[in-house]
């Protein structure tokens, strides 16, 4: 996005990319991934993971329709 000078889209995606990198870096060394399979069913963790997943889903849906609109606009203008 930086090479093609789409600054608005880059700035829109920067917080989510930063959050994903932060989550990946903060995984404890003994865990296999971000979500520990042995503790995922803990009520507090499950609720927070579901909340995070819904926020990311909403963000990605917003981005999808924004990109779709941009593509249609570019095709019409050609």
Explained architecture:
- With 78 residues, this protein is mostly helical.
- It has a domain at 44-77.
- The protein has helices spanning 7-25, 43-77.
- The longest helix is centred in the C-terminal third of the chain and has 35 residues, at 43-77.
- The model has no long low-confidence stretch (mean pLDDT 83).
- Spatial gap, N to C terminus: 21 Å
Overall residue-averaged pLDDT value: 83
Could you name the ranges where pLDDT drops below 50 across 5 or more consecutive residues?
none
Question: Per DSSP, what share of the residues sits in E-state strands of 2 or more residues?
Answer: under 5%
Taken from the alpha-carbon principal axes, the silhouette is: elongated
From the helix content, strand content and strand pairing, which structural class follows? mainly alpha
**How large, in whole angstroms, is the Cα Rg?**
17 Å
Please bin the fraction of helical residues. 55-70%
Q: Figure out the total of helices.
A: 2
What's the main sheet like? none
Number of strands: 0
- Listing every helix as H and every strand as E from the N terminus to the C terminus, the arrangement reads HH
């Amino acid at each position: 996005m930086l090479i093609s000078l789409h600054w608005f889209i880059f700035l829109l995606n920067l917080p989510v990319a930063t959050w994903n990198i932060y989550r990946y870096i903060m995984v404890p060394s003994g865990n296999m991934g971000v979500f520990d399979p042995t503790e995922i069913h803990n009520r507090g963790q499950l609720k927070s993971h579901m909340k995070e997943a819904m926020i990311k889903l909403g963000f990605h849906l917003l981005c999808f329709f924004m990109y779709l609109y941009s593509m249609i606009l570019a095709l019409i203008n050609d």
